[in-house]
Amino acid sequence: MEGAYDDRDGKIWLDGKLVDWRAAKVHILTHALHYASSVFEGERCYGGKIFLGHEHSKRLRFSASELDFEIPYTAEDIDAAKDAVLQANGFTDAYVRAVAWRGAGQEMGVASSRNPVHLAVAAWEWGNYYGDAKLKGAKLDIARWKRPSPETAPVHAKAAGLYMICTMSKHEAEARGCSDALFMDHRGYVAEATGANIFFVKDGEVHTPLADCFLNGLTRQTVIKLLTEKGIAVHERHIMPEELDGFEQCWLTGTAAEVTPVGQIRDYRFEVGALTLDIMDTYEKLVRS
């Protein structure tokens, strides 16, 4: 599938029915467009099966509740919608995007409790998120923005508004010849990339930032479980920026990113080492099993 995302053949599930791709539209006064009252999920389908699909559906509903609205569909309904989209488009390997939002309604101020809540599911074929970085390692910049405190935003929701600084940071990183940017959090600790969690290796052990002010990704959780099953020590902890100099390997995890090695963060360099390659291979086998 090619072309602009609003001009393609295919079907999108919208509020309970499959509609033509180009007909899946919202009104200009949709609340989410003005006030970011929107949550979403990104999922990958491998061989006709969405990896952790039900967990993604449950998280979508959780994220909505964190933004003070309720999706009028159960997790099982959302699962069925995703399956219907894949079947309608003839996809067996694809990226799946479920999104829920407050629409246009009786209110057009900050408050919107009387506005209807909508749900849509789309899917498309999508290759490696970071291109050839899986072979040579991604190059990361360091963002000038910081991940916010849990006291200032619903940081554990996968909410559209939380990605505003991600978009700006990724644009700045790409302008500097990088694939992505690494965030620090509001306290100055290493946090995550713009759309992926991060892991480091030192002396055969793995270190990853404690997910106390950013999304604890499902891929992150999966990779930690795989490492633990291999008998590899995993330290979830606060990591200071100056520690980057002592790490030997680094990788990113996310549904879109899968497991992608990192070769460089600013002036810090990392090898695409044996442990990185092993966890990439183990994850790939798991999602396709």
Question: How is this fold's topology laid out?
Answer:
Layout: E1 11-14, E2 17-20, H1 31-35, E3 38-46, E4 49-50, H2 53-66, H3 75-89, E5 94-102, E6 117-124, H4 133-136, E7 138-147, H5 164-175, E8 180-185, E9 190-193, E10 197-202, E11 205-209, H6 218-229, E12 234-237, E13 249-254, E14 258-265, E15 268-269, H7 274-287
Parallel strand pairs: 7-8, 7-14, 11-12
Antiparallel strand pairs: 1-2, 1-6, 3-4, 3-5, 5-6, 8-9, 10-11, 10-13, 13-14, 14-15
Helix pairs in contact: 2-3
Describe the 3D structure:
The chain has 289 residues and is α+β, with helices and mostly antiparallel strands. It contains seven helices and 15 strands. A hairpin with a 2-residue loop joins β3 and β4. α2 crosses α3. Keywords: Amino-acid biosynthesis, Aminotransferase, Branched-chain amino acid biosynthesis, Pyridoxal phosphate, Transferase. This is Branched-chain-amino-acid aminotransferase. One of its GO terms (molecular function) is L-leucine-2-oxoglutarate transaminase activity. Pfam families: Aminotran_4 (PF01063).
Structural class: alpha+beta
Could you name the CATH homologous superfamily of the largest domain? D-amino Acid Aminotransferase, subunit A, domain 2
- Distance from first to last alpha carbon: 25 Å
Mean pLDDT: 96
The best one-word shape is globular
Named CATH architecture of the largest domain = Alpha-Beta Barrel
* Strand content bin: 25-35%
